[in-house]
Design brief:
With 430 residues, the protein is of the alpha+beta class. It is 45% helix and 20% strand. It contains 14 helices and 13 strands. The strands form two sheets. Strands 1, 2, 3, 4, 5, 6, 7, 8 and 13 form a nine-stranded mixed β-sheet that branches. It has a four-stranded antiparallel β-sheet with strand order 10-11-9-12.
Length: 430
């Protein structure tokens, strides 16, 4: 174990380049950026906690949705991939029983007294609640829970559709697992983080985000039993052809007024399920749905019916996407990506809000993607909840500069992230 200063010097000298290349890619441009980023995080740790501390550095990747848009909450399939954007945490064990976490971009230093258990008033919407919940999850697993000081640096802004909360949770869990030698497996850590988010943060999330960050690669999940989803990892190596890049563009739209729009998708899908005597569409036989279509139109309305059709089609697509990735048939996968994007417009109707016709950033981003990538081996689709947020595109290297420049000209500098899939899940890296 080295001090923060020693690690900074080693990184600057290139001693950790092989490790950084495995996580982020080996180009000199990437390595220069990551050396600087890691060095800055170590320097900030010293600023807040003092020099001379022995430290370890942890990384937890973001994830991006690859398939299965609005299928998970209906007990369907989900497909997600870990990417080369991540959260980095510099951490050092302490002996005073407190957790102190300073995160770049946030003014507040979170301080958690580990002798105080259970959800605390006023914490439910703050990162402190997640840290406290993870501590309780480790205790419930029979593991030692001690204090540490940490500084975190995230590679992407909140609300970008790349699962910042799951990466933060997994980063904290990885720190505990490493600093105290708990020996918990990635799936166990993911479940602890889900518990913290559900019980302490108050967000009823599923498990896919945490699992993808914990395990790395591509994760396919069957949510037929949402309490115990069946998970399959597909290794990232070779899934994208040489020279193919995954780009995620933040269209800079706000989600602040869209809660009702998001909620309506689930509500309408479940209205259709209820009309057929079930709770969710995952419990409905598709043949029964089509047989009842005239009655469902009258009872639930056409938009609900169209969103139910989206569920059945998108769920089948997610399964087909998994099979295509397994077989390393990217062309087939890309065609399914395009079909998913068209379905978001025509069936799920979550690309833009009909009540706000002046702001259709996702539509503009998709149209621009089509204008550049049509006729190539690339593909594009909306991802996430919809109405605002991010799109994803698979961009051949020959079009990458043109695509990146065009997106950032329209949506602003720093809006288009050029990514690769990442094999490694949350772990100690230095």
């Amino acid at each position: 174990m080295a001090t923060s200063r020693q690690l900074r010097e080693q990184i600057a000298a290139g001693r950790w380049d092989a490790t950084l290349a495995a996580l982020y890619g080996g180009s000199e441009e990437v390595l220069v950026r990551q050396r600087s980023r890691y060095g800055a995080a170590l320097e900030q740790f010293e600023l807040y906690y003092g020099p001379g501390r022995q430290v370890q550095v942890y990384s937890a990747p973001r994830r991006t949705e690859l398939g299965g848009n609005h299928t998970d909450h209906q007990h369907g399939y989900g497909l997600a991939g870990a990417v080369t954007l991540d959260l980095v945490a510099v951490a050092s064990r302490n002996e005073d029983g407190f957790i102190r976490v300073k995160s770049r971009g946030f003014n507040k230093l979170d301080v958690i007294d580990l002798t105080v258990s259970g959800p605390q008033a006023g914490e439910s919407t703050h990162s402190a609640s997640l840290i406290r919940g993870i501590a309780e999850g480790f205790r419930a697993a029979g593991k030692t829970v001690g204090g540490f000081d940490a500084y975190t640096a995230s590679d992407v802004l909140r609300g970008s559709g790349l699962s910042s909360s799951a990466a933060f949770e997994m980063g904290m869990a990885a720190v505990w697992n490493g600093e105290y030698g708990c020996g918990l497996a990635p799936a166990q850590l993911a479940k602890i983080c889900q518990y913290a988010e559900n019980t302490y943060f108050g967000k009823p999330s599923g498990l896919l985000d945490q699992l993808t960050s914990a395990v790395g690669g591509v994760i396919f999940a069957d949510f037929a039993d949402p309490q115990a989803p069946v998970i399959e990892k597909i290794h990232a190596d070779g899934l994208l052809p040489p020279g193919m890049f995954l780009c995620v563009t933040d269209t800079q739209g706000s989600h602040s007024e869209l809660t009702g729009e998001f909620a309506a998708i689930r509500q309408e899908m479940e209205q259709v399920a209820a009309a057929l005597g079930r709770q969710v569409l995952g419990q409905v036989k598709e043949a029964d749905f089509w047989a009842a279509l005239p009655r469902l139109r009258q009872r639930c309305g056409d938009r609900a019916v169209l969103r139910a059709i989206h569920y059945f089609e998108e769920n089948a697509r997610a399964l087909a996407q998994r099979d295509a990735l397994r077989a390393k048939r990217f062309a087939a996968f890309a065609q399914l990506v395009l079909e998913s994007g068209r379905a978001s417009f025509a069936l799920c109707q979550n690309v833009y809000c009909a009540t706000d016709v002046r702001h259709q950033g996702l539509s503009v981003a998709l149209a621009l993607s089509q204008s550049i990538l049509q006729g190539s081996s690339g593909a594009w689709r909306m991802q996430g909840g919809g109405f605002a947020g991010t799109i994803q595109a698979y961009v051949p290297e020959t079009l990458l500069q043109r695509y990146h420049t065009a997106m950032e000209r329209v949506f602003g500098p720093g809006s288009c992230y050029v990514l690769r899939l990442r094999e490694q899940g949350a772990r100690q890296v230095l």
